[in-house]
Amino acid sequence: MLLTDTNILQRVSRGRAMRHVVALRERGVPLATTDRNAFELHRNLVGQLGLDEDEAMEEVDRVLAPFMLIGADEYDYLRDAARARLRQGGKSDWPALAAALAFGGQIWTEDVDFFGVGVAVWTTDNLPYLKHASDD
């Protein structure tokens, strides 16, 4: 499972990462994100891009369509462990890391706060090197 954080969801929304999502799905890579990241995407669409609530919800639904949404009840028990692994400035990113820990997943991000936290971390540029069982 490849988990995305909010910055990747924003890139998908802006059309800069959808081709990667399509390619990963074609390879059979399961994609996921947390409810917290979905909420942050919605907040950013309203606050930064000025979408109204309905437009933002439609965009969130469109962006999340290829992703499994993981609820807090599935990762919250790892909150402290995830926060302990993140640098001070990245503590708010704990949900994606906690979900990766809970599901044995990897993280797709452009955020350096995830590097060195004990799970595989992928940037968009390195996604072609991601190995998946369906690649064999």
Key structural traits:
136 residues, five-stranded parallel β-sheet, 11% strand
Question: Can you give a write-up of this model?
Answer:
By secondary structure, the chain is α/β, with parallel strands linked by helices. It contains six helices and five strands; from the N terminus they run βααβααβααββ. The protein has a five-stranded parallel sheet. Helix 1 (6-13) crosses helix 3. The model has no long low-confidence stretch (mean pLDDT 92).
Shape: globular
Strand content: 5-15%
In helices, the fraction of residues equals: 40-55%
Cα(first) to Cα(last) distance is 16 Å
Main structural class: alpha/beta
- Largest sheet properties: 5 strands, parallel
Instruction: Please state the average pLDDT score.
Output: 92
Total count of strands: 5
Low-confidence residue ranges: none
SSE arrangement, N to C: EHHEHHEHHEE
